[in-house]
Amino acid sequence: MRDHQLGGSSGHGNLPLELNAFVGRSAELAGLAGVLGAARLVTVTGAGGVGKSRLAARAAVRCAPRDGVRRVELAPVRDPEFVDHAVVEALGLTDHTTRLPRETLLAHLVERQLLLVLDGFEHLVEACAALVGELLGQLPGLRVLAVGRRPLGVAGERVFPLAPLSEDEAVGLLLGRAAEQGLAVADGPEVREVCRRLDGIPLAVELAAGRLRALSPGQLLVRLDDRFRLLTGGGRDAPPDSRPSPGAPPSRHRTLRLAIGWSHELCTPQERLLWSRLSVFAGRFELEAVEYVCSGHGLEADDVLDVLTELLAQSLVVREETPTGVRYRMLDTVRAYGADWLEAAGDAARLRRRHRDWYLGLATWCELEWFSPRQNEVAARVEAELPNLRCALEHCLAEPEAAYLGQYLAGSLWFYWVGCGRLSEGRHWLEQAVQLDAGHERSRLKALWVLGHVAVLQGDTVPALAALHECREEAERSDDATAVAYAEHRTGCLALVTDDMARAETLLRSALERYREIGELNSNVLMGQVELAMARAFQGDLPDAVRLCEDVRRVCEDHGERWTRTYALYVLAYAAWADGDPARARTLLRDCLAGAHSFHDLLGSVLAVELLALVTAVQGDAAEAAVLQGAAARMWLSVGLPLFGSAYYNAPHELCEATARERLGDARYEECVAEGARLMREAAVSRALERPMEAAASPRGPVGHATASVHMHEPAASRAHKGGETAG
Question: Which residues contact 724 (CB under 8 A, 6 or more apart)?
């Protein structure tokens, strides 16, 4: 799951942990730290495999500002449009609004002192340069450390070129990596010549060290020299971009390519096959995916683990422990070499299809398992697989014959877009998907109602209505009862947040009946019942609202469902407050807020904080209530129109404000609100969950629950006509 702390309490932020010893580079590290202290944009440049990323990570930790460091891994990003999304993701930001990701970044970072590390940007130079230029121009507390093979070309950039290791450092690296394998290799002329032949490039040295299990330094040197003589003469088995002009000395880039090619030559046929096939993955990958995607045509599934283990031993693949289990990755230079061979073998299209199919299957499984006790696991799994899911979406939507699969995939991930704070990215994919005429109506209809749902939650009424209306019409024409039910349900949800309670109730009841007729039961269906309960509560029928939500709560607990349950708890807390039981309301709201926050569901979180503020005021702590209102106001900036612009949803806020102002006075109330508005989301949620409150309610002051209950059921405009009544 994402970390919402931008940098957190540790300067390390989200920098990767070092898995082995950092060798040498003391002078470079000190030099880079010095440059970082003097410039707001520093770019570490150098050949592939020269150690730019590790040096940058070390320097970033040493120079971390007040709010820490965040690293953006750009190598898996293929579409320039997703650069901004990748930065938002790395910062752990969640935004439900229709704002562009860059606007979100500017809004969230305006008060931060942060070091942003952009690693592996060279294939996205123009997009990264535009982003960095705008961010640095508007965010005085931001510094950027870029890592790539070339400068960004942005005004004020300081370039820090990184040379290969010195001979002594390269030897130290080779001997150190050999020792990590339990090999006793001594310094000597052959070892030093190997390091000289590899030009001191750390990745090339590490690949050579991986061969010391089978070869002595002397044997390694002989084979390496043979390979260099062959390829510097233009050998036909070299990938085209590694063939130099006859007799020309190799550049450092070509030295690395030749070293990788030499390592490739020493692999078994199965190891070469797996190496090339692994290149279809974007970012990290898991063993089960490798066994499905890469097996067949010369590599049996049962052999994949053994072959992968050999690639690990040769430093061609890296193993990492992650929150979702063991995962693997290839360094970008090694992956690119494998991709060349995959294309040369004519097998790239088949592997991309297998990759696509695996992630279609994963999305299907996750959608089903979302309605189960594994919701948190599903959310974390999709988070970890997002680069590969994006790759599959790009592939589907770019191939006319696979467009319907792209529609299916974008629609099947509704639970992630909606439940885990990814509305903006989900809308990007869904809008692309529904524009395609794929000839598979059912897949497009699903993408349409999910698009409508996302737009509703973003407060974008016109596109939401358009998508849902089109979905309803097409579903009725094609007799798709499921799509009709979902379109009607989401149209009812739109009526709910726009204060048309009678229409909301009619549509939601009809949709729930349709769900029963077709046997549909999942988180969406239960959410429809919660939304109906909200409509009933806002119309004054709290007993019916409680009955509906207690039923939802029981079903959720039977199935282990937690996301929809949070919204049922919100309605039950609302009813408990209106019934004069603020202690029970607080208990329910704490449970609600903890659940919503764990899924990065901003809407559920901010609704809970708003109602907690009112409960806090009723329990006698007007100052803390005002602080929570200030915190909620800041959270709404990332959700959309505060309280949907709805008089019904706004009533608790109005009542809380009136109560707190009366007890504190205007000046003190505004001071407390300002204090809350300074809280970042993580701090605000922690405060709402952890701040102690006496179980017994304090005197209620001028607000009686019978009066409050009436006020909660009527929009402010309606109350104004009743003899000048005011909230509180």
Answer: none
All CATH 1.25.40.10 domain ranges in the chain, comma separated:
285-323+346-550
The answer to whether 7 and 114 have CB atoms below 8 angstroms apart is: yes
* Sign of the C-alpha dihedral computed for residues 30, 33, 39 and 44 taken in this order: positive
Nearest to 596 by CA among 101, 63, 14, 94: 94
Q: What is the pLDDT of residues 144-191, one digit of tens each?
A: 999 998 999 999 999 999 988 889 999 999 998 888 888 888 888 999
The Cα 174–Cα 177 span in angstroms is 5
Each residue of 301-337: pLDDT tens digit? 999 999 999 999 888 898 988 888 999 999 888 898 9
Quick check: 2 pLDDT over 50? no
Report pLDDT digits (tens) over 29-50.
999 999 999 999 999 998 888 8
Q: What string of DSSP letters covers 112-155?
A: --EEEEEES-GGGHHHHHHHHHHHHHH-TTEEEEEEESS----T
Question: Could you name the CATH architecture of 26-161?
Answer: 3-Layer(aba) Sandwich (3.40)
Residues 74, 77, 79, 83: is their CA dihedral positive or negative? negative
pLDDT, one tens digit per residue, over 395-438 is: 999 888 899 999 999 999 999 999 998 898 999 999 999 999 87
The answer to whether 416 and 453 have CB atoms below 8 angstroms apart is: no
Greater pLDDT, 619 or 210: 619
Q: How far apart are CA 4 and CA 682, in angstroms?
A: 6
Q: For 285-323+346-550, which CATH superfamily applies?
A: Tetratricopeptide repeat domain (1.25.40.10)
Tell me which residue has tokens 């050949």.
47
Let me know the angle formed at the C-alpha of 429 by 427 and 435, rounded to the nearest 5 degrees: 100
> How confident is residue 347, by pLDDT bands cut at 50, 70 and 90?
very high
- Position 237 pLDDT exceeds 80: no
Q: Are 41 and 99 in contact (CB under 8 A)?
A: no
Q: Provide the CA 113 distance to its chain's centre, in angstroms.
A: 22
Per-residue pLDDT at 452 exceeds 60:
yes
- pLDDT in the model for residue 281: 97
What distances in angstroms separate CA 495 from CA 142, 521, 572, 718, one per listed residue? Answer: 42, 22, 21, 18
Please determine, for residue 234, whether its predicted confidence score (pLDDT) is greater than 70. Answer: no
Task: Please report, as a single letter, which amino acid is at residue 424.
Answer: S
Extract the tokens encoding 494.
């739109």
- Amino acid (1-letter code) at residue 32: L
CA 663, CA 657: separation in Å to the nearest integer? 10
Closest to 347 measured CA to CA, from 397, 262, 274: 274
370: helix, strand or coil: coil
501 vs 515: CA distance, rounded Å = 21
Instruction: Give the range among 101-115, 222-236, 571-585 with minimum mean pLDDT.
Output: 222-236
Distances (CA, A) of 328 to 29, 201, 233, 290, 318: 28, 23, 35, 10, 6
Nearest Cα residue to 76 out of 363, 326, 300, 281: 281
What is the full DSSP assignment across 165-215? PPHHHHHHHHHHHHHHTT------HHHHHHHHHTTT-HHHHHHHHTTTTTS
Q: How far is CA 142 from CA 74, 103, 156, in A?
A: 19, 15, 14
Kindly state the DSSP code that residue 1 receives in the 8-state scheme: -
Stretch 267-291: mean pLDDT = 95
Instruction: Give 322: exposed, middle or buried? Use CB within 10 Å, 0-12, 13-18, 19+.
Output: exposed
Comparing 43 with 707, the larger pLDDT belongs to 43
Q: Where, residue-wise, is CATH 3.40.50.300 in the chain? A: 26-161
Measured CA distances, 238 to 194, 252, 314, 488 (Å): 21, 16, 20, 60
Which residues make Cβ contacts (< 8 Å) with residue 477, sequence separation at least 6?
none
- According to the model, what pLDDT value does residue 210 have? 84
